From TrEMBL:
PANTHER family: GLUTATHIONE S-TRANSFERASE OMEGA-LIKE 1-RELATED, GLUTATHIONYL-HYDROQUINONE REDUCTASE
Gene Ontology CC: cytoplasm
Source organism (scientific name): Cavenderia fasciculata
Active site: C80 (nucleophile), Y211 (proton donor/acceptor)
Domain of life (superkingdom): Eukaryota
Pfam families, per database record: GST_C_2, GST_N_2
Residues reported to bind glutathione: W113, R145, I146, T147, V148, E163, S164
GO molecular function per UniProt: glutathione transferase activity
Protein name listed in UniProt: Glutathione S-transferase
Residues carrying the site annotation Lowers pKa of active site Cys: Y269, Y312
InterPro entries, per the entry: Glutathione-S-Trfase_C-like, Glutathione-S-Trfase_C_sf, Glutathione_S-Trfase, Glutathione_S-Trfase_N, GST_Omega-like_C, GST_Omega/GSH, Thioredoxin-like_sf
Domain GST C-terminal: 188-322
CDD domains tied to this protein: GST_C_Omega_like
Length: 344
């Protein structure tokens, strides 16, 4: 293997971008295990970011990809907070019989996301072993990043879209004639600008912020990311001290996008990504908000704590070399009864 050719290593939902100047004289250690390959890279060569999505088609009536019953397949990881968004909206809009679902294995090895039948994962209907086979089937010349979620068109055998923020808006609007909750919207026109504004700072500082802490390449970068994360969690706490949801009294996609980070915070990010100033359960208003959302039966059914914990702790060997998965923490507070139920 020519080390000089290495320039990208995919780690979970983010990419560790490796300086192209790395050569055979650089101190890089390759560790082999029966499950995957791990590469130790000097931290001065690494930057952390969420990769850009590669497929940006839209499902729309009269378009190249019209909404149709049974035409599309959603492929997700139960561990991935971005894929989790699409799973929730599919569920809340009642599209289970309209859009098929596949779930990749929780472990992310050197071959990328793969299919299995263990712990709630699903074998692929097309017989593929790895998610990357969908990308190559869609575009034989594809050389980008293999990420979840994936929205696949079974009719034309190609990826429609792999950007979660766009997929949830398609699910929200374009399939209403097939939805068991037609008319229910998580992106109402009157709140669109406010939702976009909230999404912007929550994405950069909280959704992405936990990863900036976890994959920081040095103390200074970690300290900055850590401070910024908790400044914005405090901002959320302040907002929720005055209103039920991020955009007034209306439950929107902004809440769904934040929820998938919050539900992973105490069991994973607090320890694994060193975001340990305080847990979510220590925020009176955020914890109440989290409980309210989590206790909705449709949303609760999308949360798989086994996949979440085992993915992060077993896959991120550069952070957790032995792959030991913590038993705790206790998350009993999530079940504590709440008077204000989330109702659609």
């Amino acid at each position: 293997m020519g080390l000089g050719a290495i320039n990208i290593i995919c780690i979970s939902f983010f990419t560790l971008e490796v300086d192209r100047q790395i050569n055979t004289n650089t101190n890089i250690n390759i560790k082999m295990s029966t499950a995957t390959t791990f590469i130790d890279i000097p931290t001065n060569h690494i930057q952390t970011r969420r990769p850009q999505s590669s497929f940006k088609h839209c499902i729309t009536k009269g378009g190249e990809f019209p909404p149709e019953q049974g035409r599309y397949l959603l492929i997700i990881s139960l561990a991935c907070p971005w894929a989790h968004r699409t799973y929730i909206v599919r569920k809340l809009k009642g599209l289970e019989s309209t859009i098929d679902l596949e779930i990749v294995d929780y472990f992310l090895g050197n071959g990328g996301w793969h299919f299995s039948d263990r712990h709630g994962s699903t074998p692929d209907v097309n017989g593929f072993k790895f998610l990357k086979e969908y990308y190559i089937k869609s575009d034989p010349e594809f050389s980008g990043r293999i990420t979840v979620p994936v929205l696949w068109d079974k009719k034309t055998n190609q990826i429609v879209n792999n950007e979660s923020s766009e997929i949830i808006r398609m699910f929200n609007k374009e399939f209403d004639e097939f939805s068991s909750r037609p008319g229910l919207t998580f992106y109402p026109d009157q709140h669109a600008q406010a939702i976009d504004e909230v999404n912007s700072w929550i994405y950069d500082n909280i959704n992405n912020g936990v990863y900036k802490c976890g994959f920081a390449s040095g103390q200074e970068g970690y300290d900055k990311a850590f401070e910024n994360l908790f400044i914005h969690l405090d901002k959320v706490e302040e907002i929720l001290s005055k209103q039920a949801f991020l955009v007034g009294s209306t439950f929107t996609e902004a809440d769904i996008r934040l929820f998938t980070t919050l539900i992973r915070f105490d069991p994973v990010y607090y320890v694994h990504f060193k975001t340990n100033k305080r847990m979510i359960k220590d925020y009176p208003h955020i914890s109440k908000y989290l409980r309210r959302i989590y206790q909705h039966s449709d949303i609760k059914s999308t949360v798989d704590m086994f996949h979440i914990k085992h993915h992060y702790y077993e896959s991120h060997r550069q952070i957790n070399p032995l792959g030991i998965v913590p038993v705790g923490p206790e998350l009993d507070y999530l079940e504590s009864p709440i008077e204000e139920k989330l109702i659609f």
